[in-house]
Amino acid sequence: MALIDDDVLTTEGLAPSHQGRVLLIACGALAHEVLALKRANQWQHLDLQCLPANLHLYPDRITEAVAKAVAAHRAEYDSIFVLYADCGTGGQLLEKCKELGVEMIEGPHCYSFFEGNAAFAAHPDEFTAFYLTDFLVRQFDAFVWRPMGLDRHPQLRDMYFGNYTKLVYQAQTNDTALDAKAEDCARRLGLAYERRFTGYGDLAVVMAQAAG
Amino acid sequence: MAEDEIILADLSDDELVLQMHDDLYDGLKEEIEDGVNILIERGWAPYDVLTKALVAGMTIVGADFRDGILFVPEVLLAANAMKGGMFILKPLLIATGAPRMGKMVIGTVKGDIHDIGKNLVGMMMEGAGFEVRDLGINNSVEKYLEALEQEKPDILGMSALLTTTMPYMKVVIDTMKEKGMREDYIVLVGGAPLNEEFGKAIGADAYCRDAAVAVETAKALVLRKHNQLNA
């Protein structure tokens, strides 16, 4: 299977293949992980549509984008599952999903469900950590460095990150090149580095539920 | 020196103020500091420098941010430039007894370290004539209450960036109610995941979506409070 381009997932997302009874509407940042789980479990009846991952730069637009996607594809599938957590929508996405009668992932954000919501909630003192996932490490420049203007104005770094103490790379896969890149991201942000292998966490559990 | 370089000291007052608006927009801190010093040397009242040069310039920045013309990095650069100007003006404003609109205690809630929005609000409130006590980040209900006792402000401002931390605002407001002190203060809340509905649900007086709205809301509510007290 051809590798999906991360830049495309960031800015355009991924169209559904229109094959399968259950549609997963996911953030583009989860595409690789969702497809890996689908392959590993042979969930042929799951189809995937990804919305552009860079919606996270404007969380207030996520709810509407998800609602539109649900409305556009509802008639084609037996059921739809939303693979977003709250993701900075302040509870609005959950309300909308309830209204639309579709399920979504529990938890505040992907950092939480990749680690496992219960495990993540067990360290509330870690609020000075800045998290990256596999996707975000690969897309660090497109997602963090450039949108924050750090390529043009490096002096802003401490205004953004001065209160953080460490970067935690939540690794979904074991990839030494990504590990090295994540460590470099920490260096660029002036933060200590920690790698934490999470695998797919609650995403695997939720997808198994969606698969039925 | 480039031929087209502008010499701030050669500009008339009106030209200089407009140039300072441009320089704020472009986030040029040194130019703003120079402009402030020039206007003060020309005999301008510090309050006029603040309102006509800095606050008016930041208002343009704020409007263009709201309209999607400017983005966060540019706003931060502008804020940094304004901070440079404010640093010069602050002692002069105190010395000259500039008009005071009221007092605000502001801080980011417990478990949250994000302070960009809060800092912007604090600065714009100072620009609007409010005295601001900034509690910084990660504030427990005890810290908020202690500051309210000490400072006796008109306004409490709370900020949160995370969905997980914003409910803490309700903890603070509920504690204020329990202690019978809620009605003594105007409570304003803000932060990216918040909205008006949330502000109402937790019992705040208002949700402020950005620094400009915070200033306008604060002015209006302080005025209303003073009118009620004088009625």
From TrEMBL, chain A:
Organism placement in taxonomy: Bacteria, Pseudomonadati, Pseudomonadota, Alphaproteobacteria, Rhodobacterales
Domain DUF1638: 50-204
Protein name, UniProt field: DUF1638 domain-containing protein
One protein family per Pfam: DUF1638
UniProtKB/TrEMBL annotation, chain B:
Keywords: Cobalt, Metal-binding, Methyltransferase, Transferase
GO molecular function, one term: cobalamin binding
One GO CC term, this protein: cytosol
Ranges where the B12-binding N-terminal domain occurs: 7-101
Keyword Metal-binding found: yes
Family annotation (SUPFAM superfamilies): Cobalamin (vitamin B12)-binding domain, Methionine synthase domain
Family the entry assigns: Belongs to the methylamine corrinoid protein family.
Protein's name according to its UniProt entry: 5-methyltetrahydrofolate--homocysteine methyltransferase
Species name: Cypionkella aquatica
